[in-house]
Amino acid sequence: MLAGFGSFSLLASIPRAILVHSARCTLPARPSSVFSDYLYYHYCCCSSSSLSSSSHYQAMSSFSTAAANNPATAAPVAGPRFQVLHSDQSASGSASGSSTGARTGRLEFNAPDDAHPPRAMLTPSSLFCARLGTPLSLTMDMCRAEPLLAGFHDSLSLLAQNGEQVMRQYGKGIHKFMHADEYIFYMSTRDVLAATVDGMGGDKQVAVDVATGRIKVEPEGFVKYLDVAMPDMVASLSDNIVGGTAGTKRIEKSIQRTDKFLDDTLDRISKLPEGSPAKNVAILAVVQGSQDKASRIRAASTAASKLVFGFLLEGFNTGEDQLQRLELIEAAVSQLPHDKLRVIHGLSAPEHILQAVSRGIDLFDSAYPVMATTEGRALVFDFAGLTAPGWDGYAGRSMLDLWDSRNDADTNPFLPGCTCYACTRHTRAYVHHLLNTHEMLGSVLLMSHNVHHFLSFFAAIRKTIEQGTFVQHRDAFLQRYTAQPFVRPVVTSAPQ
Amino acid sequence: MSKVTTRVGTRKLNQNQAVAAVASASVAAAVSSASASVSSVAAAAGVAGAAAAGAGSAAGLPSSVSPALSFQVTARCSTTKARVSRLVLPHSTVDTPVFMPVGTQGTMKGLTSEQVESLGCQLILGNTYHLGTRPGPALLQQLGGLHKFMNWNRSLLTDSGGFQMVSLLALAEITEEGVRFQSPHDGSMLMLTPEKSMELQNVIGADIMMQLDDVVSSLISGPRVVEAMHRSIRWLDRCIEAHSAPHKQSLFAIIQGGLDNNLRTQCVAEMVKRDLPGYAIGGLSGGEQKDPFWRVVDHCTNLLPENKPRYLMGVGYAVDLVVCSALGVDMFDCVFPTRTARFGTALVFEGSLPLKHRKYANDFAPIEADCTCSTCQNYTRAYLHSIVTREEVSCHLVSIHNIAFQMRLMRGIRQAIELDQFPAFVHRFFAAQFPDRNFPQWAIDALRAVNIDLAPGSAPSSTSEAMPEPMQQN
């Protein structure tokens, strides 16, 4: 279990470091975990790939001093942490012949305050799309009607639009700003819902498109923003290639810039005063490499040596061949430590999720249910008999098209048996009417269902991993919904 | 099953006898009908109960009982013509004066039924023209009516479809038979007659239905207005004849006559003879000048029976709501609060906030400090500023506040009337809306007609009166 720790194994027996956080009061006592938690250090030296002993021991001594002075605060701190719970054992029986890298995990961040539990979620899973700090289509009370929802994934749009000034003046952080105290909030450079043009950044900054134009964001402003917005997790600024195949020079540049942004960011954070909120933000190193396997391996290996919370595999779903994609993911993951979080952007169709989970990916974006909603479609696919149990009305179809006029008098919910907000209150006929009349409530109801269905898909995946039946259900799903033998790559993710 | 048609208009009983007769007839109808729906039994029981309560209660205060509606005035302003009433409908009880938000096509700008309910709305509007087109009467019939279709369990009011037709369609011709128009879908010529409008509204199943009227722009005068007024009376009679469910749905007449008070007088006299459950004042809110507007409203409320609800169609700006409540109007509707939310405009006691304006970028107050709506409880102006006109959810959040504001305004009006402190409320409201005390002349004139002296440039005359409590939230 400690295999993934690498150079940090010697620290495994040491209790978690105390996080002294000026913006929060004393944290509740928490029993020390018996799991091999990844210890997340905020006092890090990151200019080189090796941990500087002097800074490390400096951190530890401050821990012991604090503990000695105030037993009440000596309780182990709640900070960002990820732990692998269960690794897939359903190796044999898969025609592909290999065991999967699938695993379940628990992702946990700070509690909003003493009265609330930590923001947490189980993996594999997904964070719901937000834009400008706002969930798509769903007001917060509608989000709260969905118990499976654990958090949100936004781009840097709010940073780019408002700048850190507004957030600094506000003083209460992004969670409170968007009325999402108990939710996980994650930000990435890539807007997973947009087809951004690549290469618009530069050596010193990335470019973010907002309504008022294209705004530059560089590590200095980025770190300042983290300090006032206090998101739970961010992907380090990254120079993403989104335009298909890229030449060697472009790939190399992307890797270099992304690496430099990370080093710069980690350096700035380390130099912040003790107790700065930015130190408490989980940082993901971004693994580039486009479609070149060797570059992917190299980039992943470099990232693995950094003092980061986890890794984001970028540049996927940008036109790569699907079989090649899986090889690239496998190659990158092979370089990453077992016990750290793996995130991917651009893959959110169910069959792609299953393939990526098989290769050890933990966290996905929610573009797929959002796109389904925009198309007026409700997700109805079944996985492992858990997400659409007993419903065989759709054999092979993963979505119900609410634009279809055959729904106009249908008093069934989207998916009989579904417990989401929409299915327990409304009918296909009504939503068909709402789409026809271009009423916003149509997308509200579809979105609430699609988010629910998507997240229950992940819950089902986790269950099968725990039960050792993941591979068989994965193969059955691919067989049923993609009409291709599972050994061949999936050709299309388009429904129906 | 015998169909008991309680043609209230043809009976010549005194009010108490009428009340008792109608109440027992409704109950008898409900009991004898084996397949009576729960709602009409409940309605009959509720109506009868309210009638029993009304017949002997609130000494001298006007009340009426109709087959599917009962109306009881519970308080009157001693200065103006304002009054507070209880309107009992099959699906809910409504306190008036009431503002009805508009849910045009069976939904209200992205809000769920539960959200609208939680805002305290008891009665909302649906548009017959839109619903008659999509989903259309056949589907609505099959799906059990609009309440069931949109899962809204409180009361609904539908308009006749005529207004939209005339205002939305390029080719609409009004004849004695009805409104002839070109279908926007296939270009064929269709006809909306009073009978057809009743049929559509019967299928929709709203608690209150509106007659098909010959509505003419208030900017027009002359013979056309006269013709329209007389035709509206003839169409009212056709609507009464065609209405197939008076025991479940109340048909309201619509007073026409343009800006001519003589025509209005004639129209009221004729329509009141038909003894409908309620009356609307139509043909206004079409861009006419405010001065003739209030005079027509005032004239009509003077003439209309006190024991029936008065509905002023298409009026919803805060100033208009306050003034027309003083003039004795009970019901209002307008798309304004939800429509303006789309553009990021939030309504407040002092006026409105254009949240898109950059001065709100770092304003961390809620829209309105003492508003208890979920938007004001949880979000800042700065947050809303960053998303209005950009993210769809901003529309929902501002709509929630704007509807809450309208509800709160009406509640303030009602409470002030109940405490008999309505003039002080009016003063406070106008002082907030016009801090420089540069009140619109029409409002000064209108309020003076009901004994409120809104003198510009000076403090309220009745400073000795205690100010009413800040608007309470229920």
UniProtKB/TrEMBL annotation, chain A:
Location(s) in or outside the cell: Cytoplasm
Subunit comment: Heterodimer of a catalytic subunit and an accessory subunit.
Keyword Coiled coil: no
Cited function: Non-catalytic subunit of the queuine tRNA-ribosyltransferase (TGT) that catalyzes the base-exchange of a guanine (G) residue with queuine (Q) at position 34 (anticodon wobble position) in tRNAs with GU(N) anticodons (tRNA-Asp, -Asn, -His and -Tyr), resulting in the hypermodified nucleoside queuosine (7-(((4,5-cis-dihydroxy-2-cyclopenten-1-yl)amino)methyl)-7-deazaguanosine).
SUPFAM superfamilies (UniProt xref): tRNA-guanine transglycosylase (SSF51713)
Cofactor annotation comment: Binds 1 zinc ion per subunit.
Record-annotated tRNA-guanine(15) transglycosylase-like domain positions: 100-482
Biological process annotations from GO: tRNA modification
Keywords: Cytoplasm, Metal-binding, tRNA processing, Zinc
Name of the featured protein: Queuine tRNA-ribosyltransferase accessory subunit 2
Binding site for Zn(2+): 418, 420, 423, 449
Keyword Zinc in record: yes
UniProtKB/TrEMBL annotation, chain B:
Gene3D superfamilies given in the database record: Queuine tRNA-ribosyltransferase-like
Active-site residue list: 159 (proton acceptor), 333 (nucleophile)
Ranges where the record places region RNA binding: 314-320, 338-342
Main location as per UniProt: cytoplasm
Cofactor(s) required for function per UniProt: Zn(2+)
InterPro entries in the cross-refs: TGT, TGT-like_sf, tRNA_ribo_trans-like
UniProt record, GO biological process: tRNA modification
Subunit (UniProt): Heterodimer of a catalytic subunit QTRT1 and an accessory subunit QTRT2. Heterodimer of a catalytic subunit and an accessory subunit.
GO cellular component: cytosol
Residue numbers binding Zn(2+): 371, 373, 376, 401
Signal peptide: none
EC numbers, comma separated: 2.4.2.64
Protein name: Queuine tRNA-ribosyltransferase catalytic subunit 1
Domain tRNA-guanine(15) transglycosylase-like: 80-433
Catalytic function, reaction form: guanosine(34) in tRNA + queuine = queuosine(34) in tRNA + guanine
Domain of life per record: Eukaryota
UniProt-annotated binding residues for substrate: 159-163, 213, 256, 283
GO MF annotation: an example: metal ion binding
UniProt similarity note: Belongs to the queuine tRNA-ribosyltransferase family.
Compartmental location: Cytoplasm
Role, per record: Catalytic subunit of the queuine tRNA-ribosyltransferase (TGT) that catalyzes the base-exchange of a guanine (G) residue with queuine (Q) at position 34 (anticodon wobble position) in tRNAs with GU(N) anticodons (tRNA-Asp, -Asn, -His and -Tyr), resulting in the hypermodified nucleoside queuosine (7-(((4,5-cis-dihydroxy-2-cyclopenten-1-yl)amino)methyl)-7-deazaguanosine). Catalysis occurs through a double-displacement mechanism. The nucleophile active site attacks the C1' of nucleotide 34 to detach the guanine base from the RNA, forming a covalent enzyme-RNA intermediate.
One Pfam family matching this protein: TGT
